[in-house]
Write a structure and sequence with these properties.
The complex is a heterodimer of chains A (about 425) and B (about 160). With about 425 residues, chain A is mainly α. Chain A is about 80% helix and about 0% strand. Chain A has helices at about 1-15, 20-35, 40-55, 65-75, 80-90, 95-115, 115-135, 140-150, 160-170, 170-200, 215-240, 245-260, 265-300, 305-315, 320-335, 340-355, 360-375, 380-390, 395-405, 405-420, 420-430. The longest helix of chain A is centred in the middle third of the chain and has 35 residues, at about 265-300. With about 160 residues, chain B is mostly helical. Chain B starts with a helix and ends in a 10-residue tail after the last helix. The chains are: A mainly alpha (about 425), B mainly alpha (about 160).
């Protein structure tokens, strides 16, 4: 009990202050191991140094910086503008068409980016001018992009799925395949919500312009290369042409070539993109090293077994226990950033979920969906504040109201995922 | 001096990432084009990854962009100043811990004279290089301890 209290105390310190979470996770792991291992701090430090070196030299982990680089190239080269332009030209004439186009572009950008913050920030820059021009309700417009931006961590390649795979030693290729159908369904659900809101409140989401077939086809000519790259990467992983690590390398290289051929790549953009990707990678790797040290403590301490025994003692069915865990995530998500939540909770909850008989791949997708939900729930929904910082004239309360309709889609798809696990497990089944 | 150090580390991280991308891509192309993957590519990728992460680590520490939660200063703005000092001290402690852990690994590998599996380089020297990069993060963290209020992007 004392050990658990020490670990929880250190984690609480992380939540309260701005001390880097990776350091806190590592310290919690070292102290925890020191208190239960006969060799004390020597054991804790030895495990920490081994985890650190293993993480930074693990060949498999190179998938993360390479996919991050691909997303940064796409974002920095301004390819999101073309994506929104194409989506708007095809969907803009519908009720709420500009918002629908923004969600579709978010989904497309997510397929290249893998980061919610990058998706929300980039699409805000690209789509908000059009949404303002057509006099959309600004809260609804910002809420739409905040929600659409969350698709970045579900549609592969996804940074969150890669991190989950690394922390739980689950196949990243399986997770990518598992995220595909739920990701597409999520995008469709958000589009349905935008359409429904615009139907109920036409003043919130007016129709955009109508374009000729020629204009529509011309817009596609600007995005086909990015679409082809996505299909090549995911298709290549699916048919076994290359591993996820190799796909990430090829993806980054091809994203660079696309930007170069379209004259969007300067020396300055190239260097800035590399440094940005390096920083993002280092941020996540320090967290992974800390989380894996904590993981070792959690395993040594028998916390998962105790948690399962506790759940069993409550006479809860596995589904009831799952709903309790999801409720904890929803509450945590109101106060903690999505990535931080994954690092803090996966080492503790995933063994419990697996012990309850659930599939770790399916749980990974469900977890990411709940994290997506947390990104748009006040008071600490990260994407809401990104929208606020990008659009200072829109009151945060209006963004809270504007994003609320998308909660319906989020809850519906989480329930659907619990009821139909095959949505996530069908494609990985084919892969294997 | 720290500005120059920042630039050097930024260049190291950029070169490592470009090399990582090219090596990964070339390995796949070679495997399909000439049925012969690049010799020792996997080990080379591992070293480049380590170089990239430890260089990036210094940049992140300098820019103060580590992932953190930090709701305390949001709730109690009055203690924000104290919290900044405490955070700076703990960040310094964390960078020292990581550098020390790497140094322990470097000295242990050097003592054993361990070599790479497919690339015949002394692993101890490679880890020592990573330790030096990590030590750069200590300098950046130290600067934050003495100037916790300063904006991170004012001197580069």
């Amino acid at each position: 009990m004392t050990i658990a209290l020490v670990a929880v105390g250190l984690l609480a310190a992380a939540i309260l202050t701005r001390i880097p979470l990776g350091f806190i996770l590592m310290a919690a792991g070292i102290v925890g191991i020191a208190m239960i291992h006969p060799r004390g701090f020597d054991a804790g430090l030895l495990i920490a140094e081994q985890q650190l070196l293993e993480v930074v030299t693990d060949f498999q982990l190179s998938v993360l910086p390479l996919f991050i680089l691909m997303g940064v190239f796409v974002a920095r080269a301004g390819l999101a503008d073309d994506l929104f332009d194409a989506c708007y030209k095809w969907l803009g004439h519908l009720r709420g068409g500009v918002a629908i186009g923004a969600v579709a572009a978010c989904a497309g950008f997510a397929a290249m980016s893998g980061s919610t913050a990058a998706s929300a920030a980039t699409m805000s820059k690209v789509a908000m001018p059009a949404l303002r021009r057509f006099k959309y309700d600004m809260g609804f417009a910002a809420g739409t992009i905040a929600a659409g931006g969350t698709l970045g961590i579900l549609i592969p390649p996804s940074g969150a799925l890669i991190v989950y795979g690394l922390l739980t030693e689950t196949s990243i290729a399986d997770l990518f395949m598992a995220g595909l159908i739920p990701g597409i369904l999520s995008a469709l659900a958000y589009i349905a919500v935008a359409f429904a809101v615009a139907t109920l409140r036409p003043d919130w989401g007016p129709r955009g312009e109508r374009f000729t077939m020629r204009e529509k086809l011309v817009s596609l000519s600007k995005v086909w290369a990015v679409a082809a790259l996505f299909l090549f990467i995911i298709g290549g992983i699916f048919i076994g042409l290359f591993t996820t690590t190799e796909a990430a390398g090829i993806g980054a290289f091809c994203a660079f070539l696309i930007a170069l051929l379209r004259r969007r790549m300067t020396t300055r953009i190239f260097f800035d993109a590399l440094v940005e990707a390096a920083k993002l990678s280092a941020m996540i790797f320090i967290m992974i090293a800390g989380a894996l040290t904590l993981n070792q403590f959690v395993n040594f301490s028998g916390l998962p077994r105790m948690a399962v025994e506790f759940v069993t003692s409550l006479n809860l069915s596995p589904v009831e226990a799952l709903l309790c865990i999801l409720a904890i995530y929803v509450v945590l998500g109101m106060f903690i950033d999505g990535f931080a939540m994954i690092f803090l909770t996966v080492p503790v909850f995933t063994p419990v979920i697996v012990a309850l008989g659930f599939d770790p791949i399916w749980w990974g997708i469900l977890l990411v969906m709940v994290v997506e939900f947390s990104l748009i729930t006040p008071p600490v929904g990260l994407n809401l504040y990104i929208m606020k910082s990008m659009n200072p004239d829109i009151p945060i309360t209006r963004i809270f109201i504007g994003v609320a309709p998308y909660y319906v889609a989020d809850i519906a798809r989480i329930v659907l995922m619990i009821l139909v696990p095959g949505l996530a497990l069908y494609l990985p089944g084919l892969l294997n | 001096m720290l500005t120059t150090l920042y630039r050097i580390i930024a260049v190291i991280s950029a070169v490592a990432l470009v090399s990582l991308t090219l090596l990964t891509t070339a390995d796949v192309v070679a495997r399909y084009a000439v049925s012969a993957p690049i010799h020792a590519a996997m080990e080379g990728i591992s070293y480049l990854l380590a170089l990239l992460i430890l260089a990036g680590y210094g940049l992140v520490t300098r820019d103060r962009t580590h992932i953190a939660v930090g709701i305390l200063p949001e709730i109690f703005p009055r203690i924000a100043k104290v919290e900044r000092h405490v955070t700076a001290l703990f960040t310094l402690g964390g960078t020292v811990l990581i550098t020390w852990l790497l140094w322990k690994q470097a000295s242990s590998h050097l003592a054993r004279g361990q070599m790479g599996e497919t690339i015949p380089v002394p692993l101890g020297w490679i880890i020592l290089g990573l330790t030096i990069l990590s030590a750069a993060a200590i300098l950046f963290a130290l600067r934050t301890v003495f100037r916790p209020e300063s904006a991170p992007d004012t001197d580069h």
